[in-house]
Amino acid sequence: MNTVGFVIIGRNEGARLTLAIDSVLRQVSRAVYVDSGSADGSVSVAEGRGLAVVELDPARPFTAARARNAGFAWLTANHPDLEFIHFIDGDCELVPGWLERALAAIRSDDRLAAVCGRRRERYPGASPYNRLCDREWNTPTGLRDTCGGDALFRIAPFRSAGGFREDLIAGEEPDLCHRIRRQDWQILRVDAEMTIHDAAMTRFSQWWQRNRRSGYATAEAFALRGQGDARLRREVTSNVLWALPPMWLLWPLLWSRIFMRSGALAASFLTLGKLPHCQGQMQYWWSRYRSRITRCESRLIEYK
């Protein structure tokens, strides 16, 4: 296991961080925790377990992408012999046996840049929002376009692609994987348990905010690379069309008739989720429009 290092990122994760750190240190010794301005003693928890800690400068906006890049930089500087980096969020627990499975998969094919597995929700029955997260994590196996925040990466393609875009507030994994695949590397989702995630999502406002951020990230991804990506174009259009009142009022009722009790709740929330997605998209386009206006005004002042 000396060829792989772990980057654990977090901010105010509480007891979940302890689970994440312990699950990693049971399998590897080369790991680093990157903290994004925690105020709950997370840094002390990590240091108390003998883990190296990188604290991000609060002068710059915190993002998961920035934290992962900082962890990657620290590990590769202090352990230059590493071949692989595994990222894991501080609200996740590494499943025993996953690392061996992931390493076997990525070593079996020199074209693979990243390998991911099944992320499960710790308490799917605690709320409908947790249950939806658990369904979302259940992605198809085989070669995929992207992976999630928990994944094993080969260092060479990660570095050659430039790592994560640190200014992205969400959607940094699809962006990185897009650049990796353009270099003729591949991403594999294997049929194996990888991590246990604790969303702790019990309020409607949390669910709304999560979907709004996702919509913002979708619009940003479309602006960056969407002109040649039919999937992104369809998703952006779908978010807008499904957010129209006739659609989101009607379709949950129709879907509940089709799926009956087992699928009615999920269908309703998946449809309703287009509303915060659309809100996030509109916020991105509005902020982009405002920045253009500001730049034009600045140029006008300079000209005068």
What would you say this structure looks like, in words?
The protein has helices at residues 15-25, 42-48, 64-78, 98-107, 128-137, 155-160, 172-181, 204-225, 230-242, 245-272, 274-303, and strands at residues 4-10, 31-35, 52-55, 84-89, 92-94, 112-121, 142-144, 151-154, 186-197. By secondary structure, the chain is an alpha/beta fold. Strands 1, 2, 3, 4, 5, 6, 7, 8 and 9 form a 9-stranded mixed sheet that branches. It starts with a strand and ends with a helix. Residues 256-265 and 299-304 have low confidence and may be disordered.
Can you give keywords for this protein?
11 helices; 9-stranded mixed β-sheet; alpha/beta; 9 strands; single chain; 304 residues; disordered C terminus
